[in-house]
Structure to design on (253 residues):
């Protein structure tokens, strides 16, 4: 069941969103050659605490980190580790879920470390743009399948693939609520959007083939062909005549 959120509930989600955005700002400044993903994770935990928020990810089915940090061929759910060191030329995605008084916000950015190849930058740019191509369609009365289709079309038209087993999702009182939001789909299908619905839309894009593998830790999802991957996500509220992105600062794009 998809539940619309009240203005009061959305206000609480926006406090969580502020913590998520502060994690990006804080960690972005630390993405340098030599830093470990565990150090970044600890910093993320401190930032959330400063905002009176808790991590939505920590403890979720036993997940050990405050956030997910996924480097290069790791698509999603990279576990922060003292053994994972960032190097110039890497691309790193930070997937951050914060909760304030039981209300959640969820967003992901993929950042460069130092100087990256044009090829890597293009993957980051297309992934991000696919989110905006999809989100601009959002308003009450639109089928969710239109959103999913836009993500698929934009990425595939650029020669990229989309993971099949992982999806975006409704969000609010839980990190994951209905509906499930695949990164592929057909126009005119699926649930119809209504004012107050809150959606985490998150293209997970592979430079090569769509197949992934999960490491023995039970979490880390990598591209099977070892090629680069990118992830971009925001929490979006369906408004009376459109949408509001609550996890992105004005002028960020
Ligand atoms: N943030 C992820 C999502 O976008 C889920 C995190 S999985 C966890 O849905 F294990 F880290 F919690
Ligand atoms: Co999400």
């Amino acid at each position: 069941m998809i539940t619309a959120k009240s203005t009061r509930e959305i206000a609480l989600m926006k406090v969580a969103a502020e913590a998520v955005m502060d994690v990006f700002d804080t960690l972005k400044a630390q993405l340098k050659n030599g830093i470990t993903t565990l150090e970044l994770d600890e910093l993320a935990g401190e930032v959330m605490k400063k905002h009176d928020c808790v991590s939505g990810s920590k403890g979720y089915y036993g997940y050990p980190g405050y956030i997910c940090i996924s480097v290069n061929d790791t698509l999603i759910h990279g576990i922060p580790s003292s053994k994972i060191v960032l190097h110039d030329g890497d691309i790193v995605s930070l997937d951050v879920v914060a909760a304030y008084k039981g209300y959640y916000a969820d967003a992901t950015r993929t950042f460069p470390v130092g100087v990256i190849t044009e090829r890597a930058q293009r993957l980051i740019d297309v992934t991000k743009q696919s989110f905006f191509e999809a989100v601009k369609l959002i308003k009450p009365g639109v089928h969710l399948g239109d959103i999913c289709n836009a993500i698929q079309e934009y990425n595939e038209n650029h020669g990229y693939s989309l993971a099949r087993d992982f999806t975006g999702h409704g969000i609010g009182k839980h990190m994951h609520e209905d509906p499930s939001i695949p990164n592929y789909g057909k126009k005119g299908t699926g649930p119809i959007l209504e004012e107050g619905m809150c959606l985490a839309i998150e293209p997970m894009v592979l430079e090569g083939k769509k197949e992934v593998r999960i490491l023995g830790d039970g979490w880390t999802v990598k591209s099977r062909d070892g090629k680069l991957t990118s992830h971009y996500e925001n929490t979006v509220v369906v408004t009376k005549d459109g949408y509001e992105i609550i996890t992105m600062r004005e002028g960020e794009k």
Q: What stands out?
A: The pocket of cobalt (II) ion (ligand 2) is lined by residues 106, 168-169, 200, 202, 233 (CB under 6 Å). The mean pLDDT is 98. Helices lie at 7-28, 37-50, 118-135, 144-157.
